[in-house]
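Please review this one:
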Amino acid sequence: QVQLVESGGGLVQAGGSLRLSCAASGRTFSRYHMGWFRQAPGKEREFVAAISWSGTDTYYADSVTGRFTISRDNAKNTAYLQMNSLKAEDTAVYYCAARATIAGQAGLTSTSGYPYWGQGTQVTVSS
């Protein structure tokens, strides 16, 4: 089992940037595909971005394409989400999630595709 801890959230003005980190422990990080999701008050948790174990394949929600970048450093057991040009509608709790590579890449854009989740970090964008 892998444990995930997010960090890097905070309050930022619209147009600003933040970088979220997701530190993994417990199992070999490179055996997991990683995803970022977010949940705004009163809304369902939604997909933001995902990255394959090697970093070769990345996936983005339409709403963040061109503004957010997902990456990973397997030597540091950490995944990142660089968020630029932030908007008020990006305000949410951001969660990282992990999926074993043995399960393949189908379903990486769905919450049901990930058995392991972090506790979340709050991102608030003021307009």
Remarks:
- The first strand starts at residue 3 and ends at 7.
- The mean pLDDT is 96.
